[in-house]
Amino acid sequence: MTRPALPIFALGDPVPPATASDEMRLRLATRRSAPAQALTDPGPSKAEIEEILTLGARTPDHGKLFPWRFVVLGRQTRAALAEALTPLAAFQPQPDQARAVLGKLIAAPVTLMVVSAPVPSAKVPEWEQQMSAGAVCMNLEHAANALGYAASWITDWYSYDPQALDVLDVGGGERVAGFIHIGTLTEPPLERPRPDLADKVIWRT
Question: Is the pTM value of this prediction over 0.85?
Fold first, then answer.
């Protein structure tokens, strides 16, 4: 399928304002994370991955610090990572479950690892930079959905274990914001509980 090229803006160019879009409203109303282990082929091509990353990088970023980085993980790399992480599962509180969730790491055709990499700044707190990394993860999911793929944003124990972070080549001061697994679902996911806005919203005039 041939899609129109993405617009390219030079620094300082005016960016068109947002316009009403029923298609976007429907997409947001039906947004649902996919079960990571259910993701199968086809997955995005290299060109589509580059587009997903380009769209994902257009995220709120106080100070224009770009405090995150991406690692594109193909199947061979993830299989090697899962093998290297398996011995570390024995040291988790629930070793059998820790080994089982490694299946999420290898199932999808493509995985994007988003690493929160805060930049020293007297103006922008580290917390805001970490939230920007989270916003990137959500943007990547939306971008994958816009290209017709399902996506799952997860972390799991290996995102926090110090030895696992060494295996993942996540440096000091960095954190794994998420693994965005991308592929195709053979069956639609089921709806999950959603919050009652009356319990979450306060209106103040």
Answer: yes
